């Protein structure tokens, strides 16, 4: 958008949380001409950060300012230290209290802390007592948002007057007038309305759009004064509050639990303080035994909100660029992207590190030189040494939960991968060993490629930095037997070491250690150079890889689109190539509306919970088509991987039966279950309707086009039709 704009168009770009404004300005200056950064660090409404903690020795919940004179509040630090010392001495005696204190009663007395995290009801009461309503309490779980709202209602917390309850009821009736009684029953409408009339609501993606809009309107009008919400409420909605509460500083990403980032903390707390109403906004963080107060204070003080480009070429984008631009023009546009600008900056840091590490490698090679002969010849005779690329590839293939053998104190020990992250010099693995040791390793730490020895399921109920998490992972690692066929990762050739002259060197051991250290640095250097090769033209190189694969599959010929390519250019979906291939293979032909909708649901649905998904139910008439579609998707993923591209996400059959039933006319109350919320159902149906409408325009046969149109119309009814225009248009 910015790159394509006419140079005469002036831009005013606004953002609340960007700490690398200078970098963004430099990029804009490069692609648009003179750009002036204007940074305002003063908040329109002052924000005060608070720390909320319960003390079982006094049976009180207290609120402290997090930052005093620019530093962590020393009073809270002393309180935390004193509680820890008391727990170690074993002189703490548990009192009565919140839900979280129940957990400690099962622990040995000497391990208990008198501090606890207040319950949601206690937090609600505190907010009311401190005159901090209206407030938003952020909880990173849809189910827990619902449970928190209901627990407050059960505790008889009522934040509304009779007049306000009447007004809330009128808003609700107006917003749900298009819903049938059966649909409202399926949506647990009575519970939802009862919560709102108490001045309490839940807001998350599991609610249908109409319910979320009711909560938003009631909150903005001051009728609902307490909302339990997931972080989606912090983005894009104008719902300021006097106070916000962050329930925990860790959240589940869909793959694992991770600490809240500074930018996310700022985004959430940005809702605190109503301009023109409040002179001060308040951000409250609850005590958690797995997160120290120093960590809480560091987040409150952080000013690191780096804007990073998420731009990447897609097959559809490539097809449209080929259709409208020459190869040179396409490369020029991609090389102007912010992603390319940021990628190029990394090269400087990589190159400087390569220079430093190369000098260290050369020093070690000199130390490894033996006057008795060629040390490398000796090593080649008695050791099997892998290529550095093999080690890098092996590390890149590992995923959280994988078990490997790691080098530690001259031996190999079992450890589980708990996280992977990209660093300047390659992928970094964070592991927990059976000994409870937390290790951070990269390619240079391995002499041989790490081989997957098995897999464990990582605990989900703790932050991965917590002692409980480390202990549980270590226990699971210890209990899991490694794959014996893979257990040995190094080998010696069957020859006599004494037959080589270098074996007479009295300093041989020291020289071999130096040589191995130099090898590790070589591995590091190979990883960094591979990053540079990708970074120098990361965006355009990936684009070229996409185009090459499209050529192999018949979408492009000599920088011109084929008929298949022109179809691909009209498909706007994250799985665009798979959709196009399935169309070309006739997999959507000869299906009725319900069958086509069911089969296409595999492209839009994605199970994202921490637990394993339930076994999908495949409509009988689609069994063969589904297996063929799976095989096609797997073949494309294999081709992508072979081409150096990231394979597309897998198709998901988890909603095939539900979609078939809905398209066949079944009622909502018969479709929803504990694994499928109404909000997810409506959102998925809208995405599916959009895809079906695209198919109705690009399918090669009239029968398939008609079936796609009929399917989109069959899905657009009831709660889906009533929500039309709220999320996807």
Report on this model:
The protein has 729 residues and is α/β, with parallel strands linked by helices. It has three domains: 46-301, P-loop containing nucleotide triphosphate hydrolases (Rossmann fold, 3-Layer(aba) Sandwich), CATH 3.40.50.300; 370-531, no CATH class; 570-722, Sec63 N-terminal domain-like fold (Orthogonal Bundle), CATH 1.10.3380.30. It contains 27 helices and 19 strands. The strands form five sheets. Strands 1, 2, 5, 6, 7, 8, 9 and 12 form an eight-stranded mixed β-sheet that branches. Strands 16-15-14-13-17 form a five-stranded antiparallel β-sheet. Strands 3-4 form a two-stranded antiparallel sheet. A hairpin with a 2-residue loop joins β13 (402-408) and β14. α22 (593-604) packs across α26. The longest helix is centred in the middle third of the chain and has 31 residues, at 338-368. The protein is globular.
The CATH architecture classification of the largest domain is: 3-Layer(aba) Sandwich
Assigned CATH class of the largest domain? Alpha Beta
Number of helices: 27
Strand content: 5-15%
Overall pLDDT score? 85
